[in-house]
Prior knowledge:
This protein is an alpha+beta fold.
Amino acid sequence: MRNLILSVAVAASLVSSAVNASGQYSAAEELSLFGYLSQRDPQITAVLGVNGCNPTSWVNALNYFQNVNSSYFGSSLVGTTYQDWINASLTLSGPNYLNTTSASGTSASAIIPGLQNYFSDLGFSNISVTMQLFPTWNQLYQNLSSSTATQLILAPFQEGLLGHAVSLGAINWDAENPTLNTVSFIDPDKPTNGLDSGAALSTAFFVNYIEGADSVIAFNYPGSQNGYYIQKAFVVAAVPEPSTYALFGIGAIGLLMVMHRKKTT
Length: 265
């Protein structure tokens, strides 16, 4: 039986996060662990047209998740080669999973059950898939700090523009100077600076845009003046086995006993 043992030390080494006294927060997942599959690859456009961003961005995010938890997944989630990633994207887009079509893309309602079916069919059950509506910067910061695979659904402010899906990579928040706030992601429309250079981040300065009762993270799509906001975040996270919780509990009890002995002596 495969057990998902989460190592705090290993996970921490794959996420860069920082907080300082002036209210500046930053978190970034290790870029080299992401995939860099392009939704413009001819094998993908032949099936999905221009609407392949959702399964493609999931492959790039799940490659990170696979690498972070390699002792559990091996290479089973999306494979290791570029052709493996293409195959995984086309599989994910199928009717049993994300049900992506060239005419209408991917429905948000298909993402959670589709990913759950995908993981289950691969033989993995200790994975949670959740959705955050209008996620805050703090939620994105926590997602990154926890080594999750997070997909952002971007919605346009302007009518006539297509929505988009990207893989969250980093966030910076400055409470004193909001003009420095940035969100970074691997964009399946331009995921790399070249196949030999690995994944590349697209970065946008963002503001908290308030409309009615909702506050959303809004920005101009990198390289354009088109306004977008983060409508949803879908988060894939590892769920430890009960035995892992027991190990953490034993370790905590042992630490408390050592501290108590030192105090009494």
